[in-house]
Specification:
It is a single chain. Helix 2 links the parallel strand 2 and strand 3. The radius of gyration is 46 Å and the shape is rod-shaped. With about 240 residues, it is α/β, with parallel strands linked by helices. About 40% of the residues lie in helices and about 10% in strands. Strands 1-3-2-4-5 form a five-stranded mixed sheet, with helices on both faces. It has a domain of about 110 residues: Glutaredoxin (3-Layer(aba) Sandwich).
Amino acid sequence: MSRRSKTPHLRLKSGDAAEINQMSELIQRGPLTVILVFTTTCPHCHSYMPIWKQLCKTPGRQANMVSMEAATYDRTPLAEKKPVSGVPTVLFVDTEGKITEADEPRNREAMTAVLRSGSAAAAASAPAPAPAPAPTPTEDMFEPISATAAASETEQRLDAVVPGTEVIKNPLPAMPAMPVQSGGNPWAAFLQAATTAAPAALLLGAYSALPRRRRPTTSSGLPRLSTARRNRRRRRRTSKK
């Protein structure tokens, strides 16, 4: 078993003189001390804690590990050299007191290389994490079906709703589906639609051009009554006399 197989993990709670002395002894012992600064109210810190705990169990770990809250870190001499503005933050401290911040604390490969070698430079030579696999294209869940086939399938599934009755099938043939153009020249599609609608447009134009039959009027501008209506009025006047 190697000399550093039981490299300690120190958790600073109050940041008093006794805890700061323990951390100073670890830093002087070396070869490297990895410090995690976090807060209990930070969601990102909660998501990083499982990674940190797994790193503490790294086999053959040579680096010391220390964790503390941000308020505790601010009371240590390290805060004067390296202020921490965001959490979680992972710091590397060597025996000379030089402090560097981890670029990718969530990169397990890089962090494991640092812990096993006891050198912050090992993070740069660690392999990059494998990229996530690209999503594979899924097959079409629905196949297109023509209107004729849909009508035929509906006709085959049609059953009598009330027992003892007969369902009369539609004698008219199914209407074929209209072709739908995708892509191509929009001007050509417009001309095709105009050609299809031209007969109906011509009929509407011809109807609107026909002269309207106007009802005859009297000299005063009132509508002139027909002969039958005038005779009925005369008979009513005669019967009243």
